[in-house]
Amino acid sequence: MFKGNITLTTRERGKIRQRWEGDNIWVDGGRTFLSQLMSYSSYAPLTPAEDRRVRYIGFGIGGYRQTNLGLSDNPPLSVDYPGANTQTDMQPAVSQIQRPVRVSPGVFLRELPVPTISSTFFYAQYSFTLGLTDITYGSYLYMPISEVALYLTDANTAVGTNPIVGYEASEPVLKTQNFTLDVNWAVRF
């Protein structure tokens, strides 16, 4: 049904411009979250060890696959979103997006829609579309997206340094003010 867990697709007036598919990892924070989600901290009274859920998604221009350095490492991106491009999606110790970008002025995280749940194929899938001016607003005419991450309900949407539970470092997907971005993230079991 799915080639990869994550698909990022840019479209211009409905026509596909770029598509990237990959497999995410559950980082150490996500693994801890899942183990607590399945557990109780007490049986008397019956108390779940974890009551948070996946609620937000964030994007970045860091990660080791960021090859569009002519865009990501020059103003205005290098000034507003500084940092290195070394983090991989093969290291469970990753704890946050390396170079987080805002999805709108003052907001780093986008609330996810309620996922589609499949008890046949065993996944929860988050699907949505970022509009023309999501991520690429104001002076940001382009954004070479190369990181995607999932966050829990207690994340602060106004900061880019929240702890993550799932992560992917992708080949750069160029988001411009002329392109929408379709995001599909399937958490498979």
Give an account of the 3D structure.
This protein is mostly beta strands. It has one domain (6-188). Helix content is 10%, strand content 41%. The chain has helices at residues 28-37, 69-72, 77-80, and strands at 6-12, 15-22, 25-26, 40-43, 46-48, 54-60, 100-101, 109-111, 116-118, 123-130, 142-152, 166-176, 180-188. Strands 3, 6, 7, 8, 11 and 12 form a six-stranded antiparallel beta sheet that branches. The longest helix is centred in the N-terminal third of the chain and has 10 residues, at 28-37. The chain is globular.
Q: Overall 3D geometry?
A: globular
Cα radius of gyration in angstroms: 17 Å
Number of domains: 1
Number of strands: 13
Order of SSEs: EEEHEEEHHEEEEEEE
Average pLDDT reading: 91
Q: Portion of residues in helices?
A: under 10%
Look at the helices and sheets and give the structural class: mainly beta
Note poorly predicted spans: none
- Please work out how many helical segments DSSP would assign: 3
Strand content: 35-45%
Q: How many angstroms does the end-to-end distance come to?
A: 13 Å
Largest sheet: 6 strands, antiparallel
Question: Could you give a quick summary of the protein structure above?
Answer:
The protein has helices at residues 28-37, 69-72, 77-80; strands at 6-12, 15-22, 25-26, 40-43, 46-48, 54-60, 100-101, 109-111, 116-118, 123-130, 142-152, 166-176, 180-188. The chain is mainly β.
